[in-house]
Amino acid sequence: MDARSLRKDRALVRARSLRSNRAEHAFGFCVATLFELLSDDSRFLRKAFRKEESILKKYLSKKVSTFSSLGI
Question: Would you say which domain of life the source belongs to (predicted)?
Fold first, then answer.
């Protein structure tokens, strides 16, 4: 094995290691963001569900009033 081949192998290993580190960093960032969203007694999720619930109630009340006016 000559010196050039050895340098090339080392460069490939280093590049692979850097890609792996970036992937781990990105995954860690995603996990940290998820925990941040779920913290504070899940305030974020409660707010999202409340909004969805109010939209659903509004939609259902329109459907009920439509059915009532049609005599169904």
Answer: Eukaryota
Tokens of 47: 């707010």
For the chain, give the percent of residues with pLDDT over 70: 61
Using the predicted structure, report yes or no on whether residue 40 has a pLDDT greater than 70: no
Q: Which two tokens stand for residue 14?
A: 């280093």
Quick check: 46 and 39 in contact, CB under 8 A?
Answer: no
Q: What is the DSSP string of the chain?
A: --HHHHHHHHHHHHHHHHHHHHHHHHHHHHHHHHHHHHHHHHHHHHHHHHHHHHHHHHHHHHHHHHHHHHT-
DSSP SS3 for 2 = coil
Contacts of 65 (CB under 8 A, 6+ apart): none
